[in-house]
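Example 392.
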Amino acid sequence: MELANRLDKLPPYLFLEISRKIQAKRAEGADVVSFGIGDPDIPTPEHIVGELKRTAGDPPNHRYPESDGLPELRAAIAGWYQRRFGLSFDTGKEVLPLIGAKEGIGHMALCLLDPGDVALVPDPGYPVYGVGTMFAGAKSYTMPLREENGWRPDLSAIPSDIARKAKVMWLNYPNNPTGGLATEELFREAVDFAKTYNVAICHDAAYSEVTFDGYVAPSFMQTPGAMDVGIEFHSLSKTYNMTGWRIGMAVGNATLIDALLRVKSNLDSGIPQAVQYMGIQALEQTTDEWMAANNDVYRRRRDRMVEVLSGMGLSITAPKAGLYVWARCPAGWTSAALATELLEKHAVVVTPGRGYGEYGEGYIRLSLTTPDDRVEEGLRRLEGSRLGAPPA
Ligand SMILES: Cc1ncc(COP(=O)(O)O)c(C=O)c1O
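Predicted structure in complex with pyridoxal-5'-phosphate:
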């Protein structure tokens, strides 16, 4: 049996590797504290789970869902965007429920890229932008995200021959893994770039609601001209602690939404209908108080983590959004060496920044989704230890 060549091009799935290391360490008897994957430890709110219980027994919900979701869900998504960002979308043409943002991002590449085309991909970045590009037979052109530039790409540095070949630019703010934030200027430049070079802008806003210190994240779709060139992906995963239920959405340009629906409907059969009802509850009935309390849990963990890691000699800007602390390793340490050191000496798991691309080298990422007592246990082990010279 011979597998397709594209499988050889897949990078090893980062979190699979990490979970193997954790298992090996646990097999040695270690009590491992993991700050690895960003997967909320706090349960889905009761009013949302209750809706699943209410709808699960209803036979129409046992059948194939429509690929484009229930009209009530599309209306709930549009209503949420209206309340949150003051934006109006046509629920028939400009809104599409997804089986999580990841599904939409992966499929979007198939809508936009032919073999030989170019996708503009941020680095460090969420790996699916590059993997989707590779599955479509296209090439990723790296847009470096640098600390000194607020983790935003310099669009003027993209050579014009690359820009002319490019079909899509991926942006993600608030950014995973860096915690970088968008500016109005970046979004405006992206729209100008898209119009000049005929490139689609795909903005991934999966973390727009996980914010701290009064920060309010914008939507790319608020940018003048964005509807002509772009689409925004959003997820209920992080906003409502719903990673396990698999539900997200895309809104924006009708041609892009239609293309995504055409690809999706040939490859998947939509979100289980009872989960769609959960999504409606989440979007329509979750209170601001619940959101604030949920984010406050992450904010407290962030503050503790920043305090302890800074004391160890790592350099950190406390993120105003997202589920991660992104910390610069002390001079001489690679991200893998530091991750190995923390695992070996303290049984604490962090993600090496190199796993998010070459420009992630020199950083480690810690997720804020570990329960409070485990955060304290992990930090207690690290507190007071100062990193010396890296291993030779
Ligand atoms: C930047 C980014 N986009 C999208 C996703 C996936 O979200 P979903 O659970 O909706 O598929 C993640 C998950 O970690 C992410 O970090």
